[in-house]
Every structure is written in C-alpha cells, then in structure tokens.
Design a protein that fits this description.
- By secondary structure, the protein is of the alpha/beta class.
- The chain has 2 domains: 256 residues, Type I PLP-dependent aspartate aminotransferase-like (Major domain) (Aspartate Aminotransferase, domain 2); 127 residues, Aspartate Aminotransferase, domain 1.
- Helices cover 37% and strands 11% of the residues.
- The protein has 16 helices and 12 strands.
- The strands form 3 sheets. Strands 1-7-6-5-4-2-3 form a 7-stranded mixed sheet, sandwiched between helices. A 3-stranded antiparallel sheet has the order 10-12-11, covered by helices on one side. It has a two-stranded antiparallel sheet with strand order 8-9.
- The protein is globular.
- The mean pLDDT is 94.
Length: 475
Amino acid sequence: MKTIFEKGALGQHLTLLPECDVPEIHLANERTSPLHLPHVSENELTRHYKQLSDRVHGVNDGFYPLGSCTMKYNPKIDEAAAAQPGFTGVHPLQDADTVQGSLEVLYTVQKDLCAVTGMDAVSLQPAAGAHGEFTGLLLIKAYHTHRGDLARKKIIVPDSAHGTNPASARMAGFDVVNIPSGSDGCVDLDALQAAVGPDTAGLMLTNPNTVGIFDKNILKITEIVHAAGGLCYYDGANLNAVVGVVRPGDMGFDVCHLNLHKTFATPHGGGGPGSGPVGCKAALAPYLPGPVAEEKHGKFKFAVPPRSIGRVRSFAGNFGVIVRALAYLMTLGQEQLPQVAENAVLNANYMMARLAKTYHMAYNGPCMHEFVMTLEQLHKDTGVSAMDIAKGLLDNGIHPPTMYFPLIVHEALMIEPTETESKETMDAVCTVLETLYETARTNPQALHDAPLHTPVRRLDEVGAARNPILRYINK
C-alpha cells in the first residue's frame, strides 16, 4: 500500500477554503518554504483512509484476546453520552458556576470509584495506568517524607508484575526489590518476609496477578508489608476479574489506580485516550493531586488537598473518558456490575478447560479473567513457537493473545476473552487453536511461513525494533 505522499500528483487538491474575511497577520518568524503536504484529491484522500481502516483489526472486527489488556467491546451508549454538546462544548477554564454539570460528573465518578475500590478519596487526573502508578507512588513517597520516615527507599515488586511497575517505582525515586513467585504463581511469602524491613516504602501488586490467579494469601501479604511500616499499592490492570465483587481496600491496599480505558467503557489501545484515576485511603488523601471536585450545599467546585503533591496533568484529566465511565457505571448499577467480573471469569475458565485438553497450561486449577499457556514442550518437539501459533491465528482473522509474557513462563500465550465474548465465538477460536496445534505436529513449516493471507506477510520484528523507520522521506 502506498503512503499518502506517494499518491496523487502536483496540482491536485481538496476543496479550497473560503476566502479569508479577516485581516492577515504575518509573523516575524513565519516559514519561508512551503509545507510538505501531499497533493491528492478529496476522492483519493477518502480512499486512502478507507484502505488504512481495512487493515486495522479491532474488537469490531473479531476476537481480540490480549491478556492483561482487556480489549473488550464497549457499549455505544457510553460513546453517545460523552459526545453530548453539553460536555464537548465546555472549556476547562470556564468559571465553576457555568460548568456545574461537568463538575457533578467528576464528583459522582470520584464517589463511585471510591465505592468500587473501598478507598476514601480519588483523583481523576492521571492520564493512563502507568501514570496512575507513578502518581500512587508519589503519594507513598509524600506520606513517608511528611512523617520524617526518610529511610524508606525500597518498593517490593513480584517477578510476575507488569513491566511498568518497576519502571514507575524507579521514576518515583525508589529502589526496586524483586521477589520470586512460588510454583503456584502467587507471591512467595517467605521471600516477601525476608525482603521487608525498615527501608520498605511499599509493595506493588496486581490481584488477580499477571498469570490470572487470585492470590489466596492476599490478606497475609498486605499484613506483612504493613507490619514492616510499608504501604500497599494495587495495580488495577486486572480489576475486570473482581469489579463489584472484591475491593482492593478490603484486601488491605492503601492506594490503587484504575484503568477506565480497560474496565469502564473506553476503547483501549491505539495510543489513547486513557485515564488512570488513583484512589487512596484517608491517610493518603491529603497528598492527592489537585484539584479534585467537591460538593457543598448543592454546589460543585474544585479544591486542592492540603498537602497535595501538585498537578500530574492539566485540568481534571481526560474528561470524555470519565463521562464514558459514569455512563457505564450508571447503566450497570451496583446490582449488575458484579456480572462483569463473573462473566469474565466464566469465559476465561471455559476456554482454559477446553484448551487444556490440547495445550499445556502454565498453572493448574481455576483461573480468573485470563490464563497462560506454555508452548515450551511443543517448541522443543516441533520447532513451532508461540510466535508461530500467533501468526497462524492472523491467517484465521483472530488477533493473537499476549505473547512471551509474563517472563516467568517460557513460550507463553496469555489469553483474556473478556466478559463480552459469546460462547459461540470462544468455541470457534478454540477450534482454530486446536487445529493450529495439530498443524504444528504434522506440518510445522506451514506455521513457520504464516501468515499467508494478511495484507503484510511475516515481518522482521527484530529489524523493525532495532532500526525503526519513523517517518516517510520523500525522495
């Protein structure tokens, strides 16, 4: 497919803009050379973007089982709510009296997320999950600093954690202590006990964890950290598995982030927009980024917590994403929200049980919202890797699951069907995976050559990563 710069011809253009009806102002440093823009007609431009869209695979096209990413279908009613002119037409610098409806949205979402997480206060500012992690760690740092407990420099992170966890801890100025998982995929309690001490600032943990297991020792884990004087941070990336059923605050966590773009009805991926609100217990609330929305005598306003760490983003966060989350929460309500988690867990266990007859599961027993298969033995026996199976899925119109993660599982494929997929869809995908396994046994070269029927054949991922071409150069 040609780039937009390779199409058209000099002199072709779209409909001309209307004649300027205001005085022209020339800047002292304005450019002297013409902009490098493509010369295409409106017809060609429309076709170009249609061709691009045909090459994109999203949840509206087919199964998209990225583990730990929750690429699920989101109700279109939430999109409609966020697109209302009363929300899209406001300016973030308007006087509070003129945007009472928008402030009420922020205030209501703050309250609802407190109820969902078991926290006492929420900031909606962070723009994404990792941004939320960083913000939560700054709260932990501010808390220890304010108390004069300056020796607490270490954050404990399990080896199954999301890669952003240790990165966020380092960005916040902490040293990272990595602890191993046990054979059951959960935190090794002995290793945790040995790691904590007077220098422990906190623990970062996802529960259910990255291998799709709810840690049965979660209350003991948070108790160990608290006994050492540390705080517990909950990575909300996997909240889909427990939303409305179990609250991080009740597990013993002091601070958490949520991904509104995973759990609460904003499409995930494509570079944004995202939203990673941070909730915390009362002891950390004075340090939250400000401003936060408050209500007094029926009026809504912004207020800054007394010992706020300051802004972490402009204005109040990604407002459109927040409106979608409110519409989603109001549609489901307290009664139906647990069905999100129940169906996510049901779907994952259904697929796991069926595929376990063919593939080797990394961990035994029931999973939560996702499960991890290891193709290590298949790779040794046939030479077919997890990557080969993933490429075979592409030829069947299925987006591959997460590959080679978590790092503690070799030749890993991590599947999360989400709560929005039907049994018929999951059965069809399982059939494809079973067929690909048989192909690996009987004709491995076919999978080494895959994909054969996609717009682009197998790419050189290593070359692309090491020598990326980030812009088009017109020769």
